[in-house]
Amino acid sequence: MGNHTGMGAVLRAPVAGRTWREFGYLLIGLPLSILYFSLAIAGVSVGAGLLVTFLGVPVLAGVLAMCRGFGRLERARVRHLLGVDIAEPAPIRAAKGGPVSAMGALLKSGSAWRHVLYSVVQFPWAVFAFCVALTFWAYGWAALLYPLWFWAVPAGADRSGVMLFQNDEYSFVLDTPVAIVLTSVFGVALTLTTPWVIRALATVDRVLVAGLLGPSRLDHRVSELESDRGVVVDTAAADLRRIERDLHDGAQARLVALAMDLGLAKEKLAEDPRAAARMVDEAHGEVKIALQELRDLARGIHPAVLTDRGLDAALSAVASRCVVPVKVSVDLPADQRPAEAIEGIAYFVVSELLQNVSKHAGSAARGAGVDVWKAGERLLIQVCDDGRGGAGLSAGAGLAGLSERLGAVDGVLVVDSPAGGGTVVTAELPWRGRG
Questions:
Q1: Which of 5, 71, 115, 308 could make an S-S bridge to 67, C-beta 3.0–4.6 Å?
Q2: Which domain does 28 fall in, by range?
Q3: Are 93 and 105 in contact, with CB atoms under 8 Å apart?
Q4: How would residue 117 be classed by pLDDT, with cut points 50, 70 and 90?
Q5: DSSP assignment of 25-41, as one string?
């Protein structure tokens, strides 16, 4: 079945829409590249020659802006004809307002100079691609259809056809039935080969446009950092809302009730000391519960044991509260500790994953394990359980939130959780040791 499908794709390729779009892209590329090359070379030459005067600066800035316009056109051409959406490079931001600052930003922009380089480099490639694509296409279809038109080519007084060779004693003309059939067979082979040649040429254009007209690695990194900053802000806001909700619904409500009970006890103290003593005793119990809730809340924010004794002790304390037995193994250098922020995120990740074990694994899980170790300049965490599995990083899931939180500090979260086969979650964080 697969062979039939592959053969069908090969036979359909010469008339496929993709082939014609890519062929059109290569044909249109030649006149456009001539325009780009001519204007870019002329503009840079004039601008460089005028740099001895102030006029060279605005001329060069204008050429850079023009080439960025060429890049916009090329990205649109690639998007519509080659089906590849190349992101725009980062916008050029001037430090201050005004034309002088804008020109300076253009001249210092690596992206703008890459657009100039594209305008120059693409010209010789476009000439080559145009010639190769047009030659393969024209010769292929001409040979394939040769039986239909060979008679229209006058090769001599008594015969018609294309003459391949002639000298004083001998000539070779494609006019016999065998020669006509062989020419058509050659045309079939060439026509079936042409789409893949065109596809290869168009792939080079995709690489050129993506490499020179798209965002640089620095631009990608800036975008990632901006996204990570948003994640950090959102996470911090969510944590504050959670703390506020826990305080309002837990300790605060309990302390309000406690104040009311103590007020009533004070009123009854003179007329009914026993009732007042009983109310004070109940209030004492409420104080203990409120203190425990505050301790739990503080431990959820940043436990004191983590600050004082490190990850080993803090994770052991978290594991002791899990509903299934947890084996904790922490293999970290005794004289080194990761940065406080990394240590806090590691604690939070393990705490969340063990809560998931308690919440979702249920009776199917008989045990869990936590392994923490250092590899190079990375802190690695692995939490596994033998529960029912089926966990994933789907949008909206708790693991997706953990992945975003780790991504904000250049961390990675990997989940391996086949249905019925337990779950293994591996987290990787930068070490960033304490100074």
A1: 115
A2: 2-213
A3: yes
A4: very high
A5: HHHHHHHHHHHHHHHHH
Question: Which residues neighbour 114 within 8 Å (Cβ) at sequence distance 6 or greater?
Answer: 89, 212, 213, 216
209 and 66 in a single domain? The answer is yes
Instruction: Give the C-alpha distances (Å, rounded to integers) separating 292 from 196, 261, 318.
Output: 71, 19, 16
Tokens of 125: 């490639």
**Domain count within the chain:** 3
Domain end call among 196, 213, 230: 213
* Same domain, residue pair 296 and 359: no
Q: What pTM was estimated for this model as a whole?
A: 0.56
Q: Which residues contact 204 (CB under 8 A, 6 or more apart)?
A: 125, 129
- 296 and 313 in a single domain? The answer is no
Whether 44 has a pLDDT exceeding 70, the answer reads yes
Rounded-to-integer distance, Cα 387 and Cα 350, Å: 17
Q: What is the phi/psi pair of residue 101, to 5°?
A: -65, -40
Closest CA to 338 of 346, 348, 326: 346
Instruction: Convert the pLDDT of each residue in 158-195 to its tens digit.
Output: 667 777 666 766 666 777 788 888 988 999 999 999 99
Bridge partners of 328, per DSSP, are: 370
Structural domain ending residue among the three candidates 262, 278, 301:
301
Residue 390 belongs to a domain with what CATH number? 3.30.565.10
Tell me whether residue 435 is in a domain. no
